[in-house]
UniProtKB/TrEMBL annotation:
The protein's annotated pathway: Cofactor biosynthesis; Fe-Mo cofactor biosynthesis
Classification lineage: Bacteria, Pseudomonadati, Pseudomonadota, Alphaproteobacteria, Rhodobacterales
Domain Dinitrogenase iron-molybdenum cofactor biosynthesis intervals: 383-477
Protein name, UniProt field: FeMo cofactor biosynthesis protein NifB
InterPro entries: Aldolase_TIM, Di-Nase_FeMo-co_biosynth, DiNase_FeMo-co_biosyn_sf, MoaA_NifB_PqqE_Fe-S-bd_CS, Nase_CF_NifB, NifB_C, rSAM, rSAM_sf
A single MF term (Gene Ontology): lyase activity
Function: Involved in the biosynthesis of the iron-molybdenum cofactor (FeMo-co or M-cluster) found in the dinitrogenase enzyme of the nitrogenase complex in nitrogen-fixing microorganisms. NifB catalyzes the crucial step of radical SAM-dependent carbide insertion that occurs concomitant with the insertion of a 9th sulfur and the rearrangement/coupling of two [4Fe-4S] clusters into a [8Fe-9S-C] cluster, the precursor to the M-cluster.
Cofactors (names): [4Fe-4S] cluster
Length: 488
């Protein structure tokens, strides 16, 4: 979604109602997947670490923003899906070159964003090369930010090769969240994805390289989890290479204490100039991705709300305000506003209680649902139906069945609304994307698009705007059940 976050100036923090109203103008429950677990599902110390982290908690991604700074350009391996001209594809979309920053510039940028965006809770370093290999710059950046913004969580993403060398410092610096990209634990498969590594002053290739990389990744995972660091494992799903194998990866990382497993689709395009792009290796379809995710059920908890964001992304997941905070746009004098972040977090705490109570009622209403039903939700955050259909560039997909209502993923679609005029090609794309979804919940929709959706059996509902997502879904289910009872 491209809806803006709320600038401090637009927020009145004097009351919960005002904060809520401001959010509705500006600005993504429970489920079986681990990333959406709540305080009842984990110990208080772990909950305290994840509750404001938009990637580690599905619920938090409705409320909190992250930002990345591109300070670490060097990398010690070669992935076949990477072109070094672009950012590290292990944690971001390829094809986007972010502004390279010194640690000092990066710290300034984080200060500027924190002063403007009260939703900011996490600073991530995910490249553009490898944050653990380019450790000096990563460390300097984190140290400066920790000193000036102690309430911002630090998050690091790495291919894992250099990671074991920095575990002690990572722990000492309170970096509670680390991502390791592990695409294979079988070196025969790993060698098809990473042709070479640079390790202990030597370039190594083939099975030898894949074995060293795998061993270092698993070693880092064990060392970090032993120290209480929450480790997320990213795996890039590459059809025909590691699709069947990712179940083994899931088991191996679960056994070593991984908090989450994020299975991401390969993005492959000849224009990116990567080995896979140039050799025609395709990415998975949505159905192939879901099949692998479903096959991993019962193993390490899966993250399903990753947006493969840019390495200089700023904002809620799925949203990108990076271009508003380029170096040339930063103000001369930056005044921090910690009280606005505190007020926002207090508001979210209250809002979460309300939403949890509403979701409980909604689950009870969903219990009578006979067959699983999918809903496409237009939202700009806060867990509510608060986005016009025409402004939605992605839809959050919820499923309701006898077990309750839960988030199951998101689907991207191009922006249909261009100055109020419809674009049939884009509408066609939305219809393709939502082919198996009978209901769209949005704040508002025009009669044209409503009729177009109806032609394909998709009912658009805009009478439940501003409701919590779960409450709105329960209302639709109840009304459907009442209509069915009347007909019987
Ligand atoms: Fe950034 Fe990654 Fe930290 Fe999040 S992103 S370093 S854990 S703060 Fe998040 Fe973006 Fe997916 Fe990454 S949605 S690509 S998982
Ligand atoms: Fe590229 Fe990241 Fe792989 Fe390095 S670790 S080669 S930057 S995708």
């Amino acid at each position: 979604m491209s809806a803006p976050l709320i600038p401090i100036a637009g927020l009145s923090v004097s009351s919960r109602e005002e904060m809520g109203a401001a959010l509705q103008q500006g600005g993504c429950s429970k489920s079986s997947c681990g990333s959406s677990a709540g305080p009842a599902d984990m110990d208080p110390a772990t909950w305290a670490k994840v509750k404001d982290h938009p990637c580690y908690s599905e619920e938090a991604h409705h409320y909190f923003a992250r930002m990345h700074v591109a300070v670490a350009p060097a990398c010690n391996i070669q992935c076949n899906y990477c072109n070094r001209k672009f950012d590290c594809a292990n944690e971001s979309r390829p094809g986007v070159v972010s502004e390279r920053l010194t640690p000092e510039q990066a710290a300034r940028k984080v200060l500027a964003v924190a002063a403007e965006v009260p939703q900011l809770s996490v600073l991530g370093i995910a490249g553009p090369g490898d944050a653990a290999y380019d450790w000096r710059k990563t460390r300097a950046t984190f140290a400066q930010v920790a000193e000036r913004l102690p309430d911002i969580k630090l998050c690091l993403s790495s291919n894992g090769l250099a990671l074991p060398d920095h575990v002690e410092e990572i722990v000492a610096m309170n970096i509670d969240h680390v991502t390791i990209t592990i695409n294979a634990i079988d070196p025969e498969i790993g060698a098809q994805i990473v042709p070479w590594i640079f390790y202990q002053g030597k370039r190594r290739t083939g099975i030898e390289a894949a074995t060293i990389l795998r061993d270092r990744q698993l070693q880092a995972l064990e060392m970090l989890t032993e120290k209480g660091v929450l480790v997320k494992v990213n795996s890039v799903l590459i059809p025909g290479i590691n699709d069947d194998h990712l179940i083994e990866v899931n088991k191996a990382v679960k056994a070593r204490g991984a908090f989450l497993h994020n299975i991401m689709p390969l993005i492959s395009d000849p224009a990116h100039g990567t080995h896979f792009g140039l050799t025609g290796q395709r990415g998975p379809t949505a159905a192939e991705l879901k099949k692998v995710q479903d096959a991993c059920a019962g193993g390490a908890n899966l993250m399903r709300h990753c947006r493969q964001c840019r390495a200089d992304a700023v904002g809620l997941l799925g949203e990108d305000r990076g271009q508003e905070f380029t170096l040339d746009k930063l103000p001369e004098v930056i005044e921090d506003a910690p009280e606005a972040r505190d007020a926002y977090r207090a508001w979210v705490a209250e809002e979460r209680k309300d939403r949890a109570a509403a979701a409980e009622h909604a689950d009870a209403a969903a219990a009578a649902t006979e067959a699983p039903t999918l809903f496409a939700v237009c939202t700009r955050g806060s867990g509510r139906i608060n986005l016009h259909f025409g402004k939605a560039t992605e839809f959050q997909i919820y499923e309701a069945d006898a077990d309750g209502i839960r988030f199951v993923g998101h689907r991207r679609a191009d922006n249909y609304c261009l100055g109020g005029y419809g674009d049939e090609d884009r509408m066609g794309e939305i219809i393709r994307v939502l082919a198996d979804v009978p209901y769209v919940l949005c704040q508002k929709i025009g009669e044209g698009p409503r009729a177009s959706l109806a032609k394909y059996g998709i009912e658009a509902i805009d009478s439940l705007g501003e409701d919590y997502i779960e409450t709105a879904i329960a209302a639709v289910l109840q009304s459907r059940a009442a209509r069915a009872a009347k007909r019987a």
